[in-house]
Task: structure prediction
Amino acid sequence: MTGESILVTGANGQIGTVLCEALSKKYGADAILATDIRENTATAAYTFEKLDITDKARLEALVVQYQITQIYHLAAILSAKGEQNPMFTWNINMNGLFNVLEVARAQQLRRVFFPSSIAVFGDQSPPVDTPQDTILNPSTIYGISKRSGELWCDYYHHNFQLDVRSLRYPGIISYQSLAGGGTTDYAVDIFHYAVQGKAYECFLSSDTRLPMIYMPDAIRATLELMEAPKEQIQVRSSYNLAGMSFTPAELSNEIRQFIPKFEVSYKPDFRQKIADSWSDSIDDTPARRDWNWQPEFDLSAMTADMIRQLHKRYPQTQISI
Result:
């Protein structure tokens, strides 16, 4: 134990479920307070409290009650779902962040984590090796809220000395939980279909290249950023983070190395326009320079592990592992 007491918002989400496990292993389960607007159905050793992130009084009461020292603020509405109800998305994403920042400032918390996204980039950002500092013209309410959040994090650091740290996550691929309404969700769903022996209809075109990262790398990057000495953190808006980039066609071909008869068709929907406004690949030089970030999984290694892990859940399909 290190004396830390950590509150995670959005703990039932794709990242939150895995992050809480990782934090429990590092700090001990009794140091973790998982919160979400939905009841927790998982059998976890750490404490769970129901929390609507727009309820600042409830958030602050929990911070005081559990003597919280750090907040990992994951509660948000994602890109595809966000476009269906922009004002609701803005309220959750922005007022939720304001509540976290204000409570952290008032209670003098040690550290806050805010997840940003490649959604902050737009059609005026360089699409290949998108740099850390570039034109940011997000085209979705999710991206707008994330870019605004980056600026507020930077503001709270410089004006209130709040130690806020952030990553611009690419699409995250994981076997532990289903995706939660993002434009890169196909790269999770496709594995579930493949390992069950089902054909998959992709909502993006076959040649849509997007930046992705495997969940173990995303969690490790998050923890490494939060553990880095304060003087090493030079970016106080949000760090670019890269893992790998691929198209649906390239991912399908990798899956066929294990499931040769896997069939994929393509029927782009409204998410195609969102994907077309995003980067093809990311330059994360500042993260590598400041806190020695290095991804461990490429497309081949990620695909092999996803299929291996999901085959335990769906053992009926014939797979060459």
Remarks:
- The mean pLDDT is 94.
- The chain is about 40% helix and 15% strand.
